[in-house]
Write a structure and sequence with these properties.
The complex is a heterodimer of chains A (about 110) and B (about 110).
Chain A lengths: L3 E4 L2 E4 L5 E7 L5 E8 L3 E8 L6 E2 L6 E5 L5 E5 L8 E8 L8 E2 L3 E5 L1
Chain B lengths: L3 E3 L4 E4 L4 E7 L6 E7 L6 E6 L4 E3 L2 E6 L4 E6 L8 E8 L6 E3 L3 E6 L1
Parallel strand pairs in B: 2-11
Antiparallel strand pairs in B: 1-3, 3-8, 4-5, 4-9, 6-7, 7-8, 9-10, 9-11
The chains are: A mainly beta (about 110), B mainly beta (about 110).
């Protein structure tokens, strides 16, 4: 049982380049999330998807787009990368329900030069 | 003021010590509470949920004080393997709104 799988693990981009981070979960969870983690700031929500076919902005959505391709997959796209987007990105999923915890992928370390 | 605040530490303790972390939250309508553990350069992993009556899992005890708006995590008989960053997480507003604290770093030494 793989849980939440993210690719790639590492990426270096030049300013202005684009890329898509892929995420898939095999736990039949309805909700999926993209977070970024920067030193001293905790995880901040970029976008989330409460269910297949819906997406909503989180705390820091600017510069990102998302696609909930199906129940399993939720991708994050950077159309024109900026150095401020250098961060560690985590995808997560959860079952529906107030007390359902998040399950995280291994993370993607992105550097934008 | 941040919605969820934690002492960043680090807490440096010897093996066998008891250590406690606190976390305060600002939204009195917050509904669910969790402690996560994050090892260096790894993803956060759920340590335990926090229930109103308090709950225990082996050496770990979590408590919630709604009146004072804080949650706590107590680790007894610390092990070297407990060295990690502990994240306080609070669900406020919509059920998708999970707010993470910046984490408290624990270093257990021999």
């Amino acid at each position: 049982n793989a849980g939440v799988t993210q690719t790639p693990k590492f990426q270096v981009l030049k300013t202005g380049q684009s890329m898509t981070l892929q995420c898939a979960q095999d736990m039949n969870h309805n909700s999926m999330y993209w977070y970024r983690q920067d030193p001293g700031m905790g995880l901040r929500l970029i976008y989330y998807s409460a269910s297949e076919g819906t997406t909503d902005k989180g705390e820091v959505p600017n510069g990102y787009n998302v696609s909930r391709l199906n129940k399993r997959e939720f991708s994050l796209r950077l159309e024109s990368a900026a150095p401020s987007q250098t961060s560690v990105y985590f995808c997560a999923s959860s079952a529906r329900g107030r007390d359902s915890p998040l399950h995280f992928g291994n993370g993607t370390r992105l550097t934008v030069t | 003021r941040k919605e969820v605040e934690q002492d960043p530490g680090p807490f440096n303790v010897p093996e066998g010590a008891t250590v406690a972390f606190n976390c305060t939250y600002s939204n009195s309508a917050s509904q669910s509470f969790f402690w996560y553990r994050q090892d260096c350069r790894k993803e956060p992993k759920l340590l335990m949920s926090v229930y109103s009556s308090g709950n225990e899992d082996g050496r770990f005890t979590a408590q919630l004080n709604r009146a004072s708006q804080y949650i706590s995590l107590l680790i007894r008989d610390s092990k070297l393997s407990d060295s990690a960053t502990y994240l306080c997480v609070v669900r406020s507003g919509g059920y998708n709104k999970l707010i993470f604290g910046a984490g408290t770093r624990l270093a257990v030494h021999p």
